[in-house]
Amino acid sequence: MLARSALRSSLRAAAPSAPRMFSSSAADRHAVAVLGASGGIGQPLSLLLKNDPLVTSLRLFDVRLAPGVAADIGHVNTPAVTTGYSPDGPEGGLKKALEGAELVVIPAGVPRKPGMTRDDLFNTNASIVRDLAKTAAEVCPKAHILVISNPVNSTVPIVAEVFKKAGVYDPKRLFGVTTLDVTRASTFLSGIAGAKPSETIVPCVGGHSGPTIVPLLSQAAQGSAVKAGEAYEKLVHRIQYGGDEVVKAKDGAGSATLSMAYAAAVFSNSLMRAIGGESNVVECTYVDSPLYKDQGVDFFSSKVTLSGEGVGEIHPVGKLSAEEEKLMEACLPELKKNIQKGVQWYGENP
Ligand SMILES: NC(=O)c1ccc[n+]([C@@H]2O[C@H](COP(=O)([O-])OP(=O)(O)OC[C@H]3O[C@@H](n4cnc5c(N)ncnc54)[C@H](O)[C@@H]3O)[C@@H](O)[C@H]2O)c1
Ligand SMILES: O=C(O)C[C@H](O)C(=O)O
């Protein structure tokens, strides 16, 4: 995807021996806060953001270790000024981390262990995300909020409810990060098709858990490598349950962190480029979407052209194969349940 090559050139441009010089254009400068910055995702994500030339101020917040992570990452010789914030630290806490933030990336929360579903994380992560969102709504109501914490299908609607209650909800500025599904689909299909991952683009629509992840292999140039039958079903299953593969391999030590950090860095870079005025930046992302509202599905991931405001054009899913129609039939009712669960929980636990 465009975004990936842009990130790669960003990474090249920011090679340690030759930090990139910046124009003074405000469009090039972005303050990014990472909430949950000391975790498995937070640390590598913060490092990748420090290496992204579009980031000039990097604020790392966590309930533990954030000043240490910031001190470490801060020695990387790229321009982003990096500061760590803990709840009671001398630098100030969460509010200070969020002051002036343009992007707020949230990987705070607990990850899965083998045998758990993402929904099993709901009870713990819902309140963590709600509380962080409350402070963001107060301190940086115009920031773009990028939610990583699971279950994304439910945590994103919770953030929307928090912002609505605070009277500052802008649906163009709220994103569930589903980039990892697209990343996995590209990796797995390119491996089968013998193609370059960078040229293997598989849109993934719906949500971010098992049957709600709908890979549109028919829309990938290499999709004919696995048209239907057993190979197709195996690939779809691997994309939908790629997270389980990592959870199992880590054997109790958590879920995907490094690939997720990469995916979130790609998405953040795309969003910053779009905010800075670049056109035709397209990513799949879980947003407040009109596509299936008539079926009670208020949030849906599909291709979105990012814009200066955040969400630009939300693209319909396009022509689906018979197999994909079936996947969509399984996705929508589950997604609707996950969304309702988040909204209802917030209604009872504002
Ligand atoms: N969207 C996706 O595609 C995707 C992919 C992978 C993981 N995830 C999810 O991301 C979340 C984080 O995963 P991880 O592996 O980094 O977990 P982790 O336990 O390694 O890190 C989580 C971090 O959050 C911090 N934290 C907890 N409560 C906090 C609070 N109130 N404020 C600030 N920080 C707080 C913890 O101290 C910890 O450092 C999980 O919910 C996981 O399921 C999502
Ligand atoms: O699988 C998980 O629990 C983490 C994440 O959502 C993933 O897709 O890897």
Structure description:
The chain has helices at 2-13, 42-50, 66-73, 94-98, 122-139, 152-165, 179-193, 229-240, 242-250, 258-275, 322-348; strands spanning 30-35, 55-61, 81-85, 103-106, 144-147, 174-176, 204-206, 213-215, 281-288, 299-307, 310-314. The chain is globular, with a radius of gyration of 19 Å. It starts with a helix and ends with a helix. The chain has two domains: 30-177, NAD(P)-binding Rossmann-like Domain (Rossmann fold); 179-340, L-2-Hydroxyisocaproate Dehydrogenase, Chain A, domain 2 (Alpha-Beta Complex). Strand 1, helix 2 and strand 2 (55-61) form a beta-alpha-beta unit. Residues 1-24 have low confidence and may be disordered. It has 350 residues and is α/β, with parallel strands linked by helices. Strands 3-2-1-4-5-6 form a six-stranded parallel sheet, sandwiched between helices. A three-stranded antiparallel sheet has the order 9-10-11. Strands 7-8 form a two-stranded antiparallel ribbon. Helix content is 42%, strand content 16%.
Give a brief rundown of this model:
The protein is an alpha/beta fold and 350 residues long. It has helices at residues 2-13, 42-50, 66-73, 94-98, 122-139, 152-165, 179-193, 229-240, 242-250, 258-275, 322-348; strands at residues 30-35, 55-61, 81-85, 103-106, 144-147, 174-176, 204-206, 213-215, 281-288, 299-307, 310-314.
* Beta-strand content bin: 15-25%
Indicate the mean pLDDT. Answer: 92
> How many strand units?
11
Task: Spell out which ligands are present.
Answer: nicotinamide-adenine-dinucleotide, (2S)-2-hydroxybutanedioic acid
CATH class (first level) name of the largest domain = Alpha Beta
